[in-house]
Amino acid sequence: MQYFDTETNANYTPYVVETSVGLDRMFLAVFSNSLKEEVLEDGTTRIVLQLPSVLAPTKAAVLPLVKKDGLPEVARK
Q: Which of 5, 27, 61, 65 is 20 to 30 A removed from 55 (C-alpha atoms)?
């Protein structure tokens, strides 16, 4: 797309500067910066999500993986 200025007899190509910073862009920037590559003891690597601690709503949680042998009660304690 070009613009022709009749007063100066010149062609211009307009540029758009987008200054919007929405929640989705901010989340994507934090999310993409939080992906880390971790080397395991056996030499393999994996990618983990390591969010900054100030963004974590819960600092620590103990969750039982099965509902037997009294594990839910131990987790609540």
A: 65
